[in-house]
Amino acid sequence: MLERIRIVLIGTSHPGNIGGVARAMHNMGLADLALVAPRCEVLTQDSISRASGADHLLHQVRVHTTLEEAVADCTLAVGASARSRTLPWPMLSPRELADRLPAECKPEGARIALVFGREDSGLTNAELQRCHAHVHIPTNADFSSLNLAAAVQVLAYECRMAWLGQVDTPPAAAVDEEELATHAEIEHYFEHLERTLIDIDFHDPAQPRQLMARLRRLYLRARPERMEINILRGILSATDKAAGNPRR
Amino acid sequence: MLERIRIVLIGTSHPGNIGGVARAMHNMGLADLALVAPRCEVLTQDSISRASGADHLLHQVRVHTTLEEAVADCTLAVGASARSRTLPWPMLSPRELADRLPAECKPEGARIALVFGREDSGLTNAELQRCHAHVHIPTNADFSSLNLAAAVQVLAYECRMAWLGQVDTPPAAAVDEEELATHAEIEHYFEHLERTLIDIDFHDPAQPRQLMARLRRLYLRARPERMEINILRGILSATDKAAGNPRR
């Protein structure tokens, strides 16, 4: 899916931004970069430095003179727009765009263009009207102009999230390889804890004040692993010994 | 909600990145920026140029010497991590983090820190272990190192999306009335815990075997309330007394 998504930059004037876009794209698994009438050189010290290892995208870049040429083979072109224009156009949020991408990318020959405008003035009305839809990244109303590479970063991230949602949903939640303690193991811990707390004069069963209930709630909330319960019991045994309490 | 979210940058070495972070934050409506031991000047031509109109954030920035200081008043600290480490920690995707934010930001006094590491090496294990959870931005496995401002951009965007989702959905029923412990309160507990474990001969700092890391992970996962931390510290004081260890 990601190989069917093209980033198109129109009239970019800072090589550093092109480099930043290349890095953002490669980070998110996109590789198809097209420039329309750039107002700067593509391969400069600045662009290569900002690309930070993604400069093969700068070498592969295709440069066009018009937007039409850059998106000629595309089945969907979406223009990044700061705000709705005089003539309202279908407007998507980045997330709505992401929701549509899997279906849009599916057909044989599908090719999606995400089109970004100039650093200073964005896309013209004529350019926006060549797009099927517009996408607006929600921003602070008082400070709405995103850096070009930052705007590409946000949309590329949404593309990747949409792709990952497709790929199956492998252990994004991962982590929990460790075995959880059983109910019985946890109960043995609570019994041991209560005896020790009595022995060190912290807990008076005649005046319980919900102490054990509060400790239960805390530890159960954490869903302890077996290894963790072993550590906690080890601490209790060391406490018993240090306090000179009878061996259990 | 957004005013309760702090961006913390540790050991940043390029002023331009700090400027880029300020712009990304202001674009998304975040304003609380803290630096820990920066390895460069904050106000330079480069940082001001990259901030591109958001340089008031650079003037307001607070500079700390340690992470603890920067997040002392925080009720939740989430560290940006490139990958899971030797000891797995609760790991969130940016979207899972966003899903949790409205509830996390709701309580009186809530303060959330999103912590980002050095450009070259990220966060250390010790720094990651001071966080309740880690967040991993999904990236191309072959090219996983995001530019710092780009990483902040993605998480700030998810924060804004979460906030926008809230703005028109009526406030859900209050989650939890009890007050969470602050980062500083939890750190004081861990310091006390470590001293006590050494005194009762359970812990040998010369052979730590990840003991403190495992205990940190357990307790941080439970998101302790202030009252619970008070109980746990009371237990440690009673242990110290029963074991005949010096009063702290």
TrEMBL record, chains A, B:
It catalyses: cytidine(32) in tRNA + S-adenosyl-L-methionine = 2'-O-methylcytidine(32) in tRNA + S-adenosyl-L-homocysteine + H(+); uridine(32) in tRNA + S-adenosyl-L-methionine = 2'-O-methyluridine(32) in tRNA + S-adenosyl-L-homocysteine + H(+). InterPro entries: Alpha/beta_knot_MTases, RNA_MeTrfase_TrmJ/LasT, SpoU_MeTrfase, tRNA_m1G_MTases_N. Keywords: Cytoplasm, Methyltransferase, S-adenosyl-L-methionine, Transferase, tRNA processing. Its EC number is 2.1.1.200. It comes from Halomonas casei. The lineage of its organism: Bacteria, Pseudomonadati, Pseudomonadota, Gammaproteobacteria, Oceanospirillales. This is tRNA (cytidine/uridine-2'-O-)-methyltransferase TrmJ. Residues 5-157 form the tRNA/rRNA methyltransferase SpoU type domain. It is found in: Cytoplasm. Catalyzes the formation of 2'O-methylated cytidine (Cm32) or 2'O-methylated uridine (Um32) at position 32 in tRNA. GO terms for molecular function: methyltransferase activity. GO terms for biological process: methylation.
